[in-house]
Amino acid sequence: MNAAQKSGKGAPAYSLYVNRWLGRRFAVLAYLAGLRPNHVTAISAAFSFAAIAVLVLVPVGWLTGVVVSACLVLGYALDAADGQLARLRRQSSVSGEWLDHMVDCVKISSLHLAVAVSLYRFTDLPDAVLLLPLGYAVVGAVSFFGQILNEQLRRNVGGEARVLGPDSRRPSLVRALAKIPLDYGVLCLVFLLLGSPVAFLVGYGVMFAAASGYLLLACVAWYRTMRGLDRRLVP
Fold first, then answer.
1. For this UniProt entry, which segments traverse the membrane (predicted)?
2. 203: domain CATH number?
C-alpha cells in the first residue's frame, strides 16, 4: 500500500500524518468492496456536500458543528483514498483526475460561501463578518487554480508535474507542524467550534489569515518558476 502513496512534500501535519493514514484504510476497504476510484470520489463528494448543506440549512450549535466537522473529515479522507485506490488498482485515468479536481473546486468555493450563509441566517454578528468567508472563498479558489495551472504549465514544457509553493523541500515534522494553519484538515476541525460563533470566527480567521499570507508568498515563488520555464523555451 505504501507504493500507492503520493509524495508528502509540502504537506501540512494533519494532511500528511492523519488524512493519509485514514485514506489508506478507506482505500483498502474500497478495494476489498470492489469499488472503483470514481465511486470513492462520489462518496467523498456526498459527505463534503452534506456538510455544506447542513451549514446552510441547520442553525449553528455544538451538534451542528460536530456533524459538519465529521462529514468534512470523512470527505477529506475519502478524497485521499480515491487516488490511493487508483494507484493500487493501477486504474489512474484522465477522467478520474478531472472528476476529482472538479469536486475539489466546487467544494473549496461552496464551503466558504456556506459559512457566509450560515453566519447571516443563524447569528446576530455584524454583517461585516461576512467579508471573512467571502474573502476565504476567493483565496481558496485562487490557490486551487494556481496549483492546477502550475502543474499544466510544467507539463507543457516537459518539467515536473507539480509545483508546490515557497516550500517544496522534502517533508519534515517541523515544517509539517508549522503549516498547520494552512491545513484543510484542521479547517474541518475548526467547525467543532460552531456552537460558539465568536470562537469559530477566531479559529476560522486565523486559518484565513494564514492561507492569504501563504498565497502571497506562493504567487511570488510560482511566478519565479514560470520565469524559469520561459528561459527553457528560448531557443
1. 45-78, 128-146, 176-195, 201-223
2. 1.20.120.1760
pTM of the model: 0.86
Alpha carbon of residue 68 to chain centroid: 15
pLDDT in tens, 55-91: 999 999 999 999 999 999 999 999 999 989 998 888 7
Domain around 25: 2-233
Tell me how far apart the 2 most distant CA atoms of the chain are, in Å.
62
Number of domains in the chain: 1
Q: What phi, psi does 10 have (nearest 5°)?
A: 80, -5
Q: How distant is the alpha carbon of residue 94 from its chain centre?
A: 20
Residue 17's Cβ-count burial label (10 Å; 0-12, 13-18, 19+) is middle
**Among 188, 199, 181, which Cα is nearest to 70's?**
188
Span between the terminal Cα atoms of the chain, in Å? 44
